[in-house]
Each structure stands twice: as structure tokens, then as C-alpha cells.
Amino acid sequence: MVWISRICYRKYGNFVDNLRLYVRGGSGGMGLPRLGGQGGKGGDVWVVAQKEMTLKRVKDKYPQKRFIAGVGTNSSVRALKGQKGEDQEVLAPPGITVTNDDGKVLSELNTEGDRVLVARGGQGGSYHSEFLPSKGQTRQIRLDLKLIADLGLVGFPNAGKSSLLTALSHAKPQIASYISVADLPGLIEGAHMNRGMGHQFLKHVERTRQLLFVVDVCGFQLASKTPFRSAFEAVQLLIKELELYKEDLPCKPAVLVVNKMDLPDAEDKLTELQEQLLNPHEFSHLLPDDMVPKNNMVFRHVVPISAATGFGIAHLKTCIRQSLDKDASMATESLHCDRLQALRGAVPAKNTLTWGPTASV
After folding, report:
1. Is the keyword Manganese assigned to this protein (predicted)?
2. Max Cα separation, the chain?
3. pLDDT tens readout for residues 261-279
4. Which CATH superfamily is domain 18-145 in?
């Protein structure tokens, strides 16, 4: 059985995906001139990845968004070397990119326990500084959440993404194997230009391992003043939106889910879509020239389902698992090849003569 772990960010009003923080390392402690004592170093400020943490929790708990480490203790007759000030930790969710105000990336924290030093504490006073301490480092930093998940749901509004995710995650987990799916707001045409939730959506898709396209087999119309789009047109527009945001996004492994197979004429619509996907260039005239993808996207699986009735859900889970396992196998094979190549490079071949001043024959 496959357990689908739901990561839902549809309610953007309660969702925080970036924060700007003030961080300051602690000042060092005073040295003791007459005995040559050294003050303690100021504490450091770290950003640490922790599961179950969210940026909203950080914002709510620290509304002033200020993190200041402890001051090092002064040198004294009883303790010539002062103690280091207490470190300050900023707990943040995995999948965080930490940057400074200039946009320079300080680190990416992708797994629980990853940490980065963002503000160093000042040195304690010593002989070399005339026993005067230095102040801690002061910075403005940004925490930007770029979600990490196995799958990112990609689809226009009303494609049935929420219903699909509910159907996928309905079964209770019985084994440790699970898949995380990012449930995000639906794209709209022009998302690459930041229309709707454009960039907030697309930057999360960027950090998913694979994509799960979801389309309505009968097509859709976003509003009365917008054109009707068939299932094929929806697929092509979704690919183009990803491509315009970042050209290599459509290169991610992807599965296409054709939803609402319980509707009338769904079988005929599915057959038509499958034919169009085999020869997309023959049907490019259905779209405006500037919305035709540069490259054809080949889906690993095209799976017809009905999220409403449960039809095809079990098969979809199998396809998802196969696709993820394929990538894991390829990654393992690549790692083994790299290690073998490194070993071959490190061990000189037998019976090889080295000519030059140090050669021996």
C-alpha cells in the first residue's frame, strides 16, 4: 500500500512562504587587563531545519522578527576565560533557501537538522584587542520556502486536484512507504507573468521531484469571457506556463492524470486526447502561436481516473510508485558509476611505467 502524504497550501491567506528577519550575534565579553584574562565569545545565530515547523509559526511566535544571541561573559578573577554567549536558533521548515538582503544565497536547508550560521558572535576582549570585545555580526536575512515534495500537482482550476488528492490520501498507512504531494492553487493562463498566484505556485513546483498533471477530460472554461480549452489545449498551456517560468521545468518526469471519466462522452474525449498527445505538432494550430510549447513533453504514464467514483485511483498509485522508483534506481546507478570512476582514477593501472626523474624500471 502507498500512503500519500498531503502537503496543502491552497489557503494562501494563512500561508507564509517568505520572511525577512533581523539577526545579530552576541557581543563578546570584556577581558581582564591586569591578569591577561580573555572575555567570552558572543553567541551565534543559526537557522536550523526542523520538521513540522512553518514560517507562519515563526512569524506568530516572533512578531518583531528579531533574533539576538547571548553576550559572552566578562573575564574575572574567578574565571579568566569568560564563557561563550548562548546561541540563538531560528527553527524553520525543511525546503528553505536562506539569503541576505543582496540576494546572495547563504544556504539551502533541505532536510531536518540542516543548519547555517547567519550571524557570528563577536570576539571576547583579549591582549590583542586591548581587552576590549567586539560586537556581533548584524544582518537582515530572508527565509524563502521552496517546497520539497515527491510530486507537485499541476492543473487549472476545477480540474479536480483537491478531489484527486483526497482520493489518493484516503487510505490509512500500513507500511512506512509513503509519497508526499504538494497541493497548490490552480494555475491560470499568464501565471509565468505572476498573474493569479503565478510565481508563488511555480517556485514550489520547481522543487518537486516529479510533476502530476491533472486535466478535465471534457476540457474547461475559466470564466465566461475566456475561451474554452479542450483537455489537449489544457495540457499544452500548462507545459507552456512551466516553460515560460523556467525553461527546464518541463524536463521533469511527469504523469498525466485525465480526471472526470465518469462524465458523458468521456471515453471518446480520452481517445481524442491520446491521439493528439502522440502528434502534438499536428494540433498546434488550436493554440495561439505564442502559447505553443517549444518542446514536446512525454509523459511516463497517462492515467484515466474519476476522483469522484474512485475509478483508476489504485492504478494511478501504482504508476506513481513505479515512476518514483525508476528515478531512485537511476540515481543509485549514477552514484555507483561515479564512485567506481573515482576509484579507478585513484588507483593507478598495473604495469604502467612513469617516465621522468623519479621513474624506476
Report:
1. no
2. 93
3. 999 999 999 999 999 999 9
4. GTP1/OBG domain (2.70.210.12)
